[in-house]
Amino acid sequence: MQASGRVVLGVAVAAFAAAGVAGCGDELPSDAGAAASTPPVTSAAQAPADPRLADYRHALEQAGVGSAPPDGTLTAMAAGICAQLADGADPAAVADALGSWGEWGSDGSALSPAAIRTVYVDAAGDVYC
Questions:
Q1: CA dihedral over 125, 73, 70, 96, signed as positive or negative
Q2: Are 19 and 73 in contact (CB under 8 A)?
Q3: pLDDT tens by residue, 52-94
Q4: Does residue 67 lie in a domain region?
Q5: What is the extent of the structural domain holding 103?
Q6: Quick one: DSSP state of residue 27?
Q7: Residue 127, Cα to own-chain centre: how many angstroms?
Q8: How far apart are CA 48 and CA 13, in angstroms?
Q9: Nearest 5 degrees, angle CA 53-CA 44-CA 30?
Q10: Hey, CA dihedral for 83, 84, 90, 94, is it positive or negative?
Q11: In a 3-state reduction of DSSP, which class is residue 40?
């Protein structure tokens, strides 16, 4: 299941990259007139928050995950997990493929990184997919 880990990690890395460039578009001189008469569009207006994210984050907290990744990363992670589960991947293999992502939630948690990876998968299956 090495390839599935790459998919989940690739989705999460894409989320980091998207978060890094969001809002970085400088106004071009030809846009000056349009910008003066049009209110700026925020990233929140472009991509409304997924209402399932709050449920997913709450499920992680209730399960004992100390801290979860930022919203964009967590959304990408959940979407990747759900895609793997929808394709019939074994949940344990999906959790293993998350690799070091289990370390992220271990701050202030009594759970091991392996247990946190399992929580990420179980909670996604329960409330996000």
A1: positive
A2: yes
A3: 999 999 999 999 998 888 999 999 999 999 999 999 999 999 9
A4: yes
A5: 2-20+32-128
A6: P
A7: 14
A8: 20
A9: 155
A10: negative
A11: coil
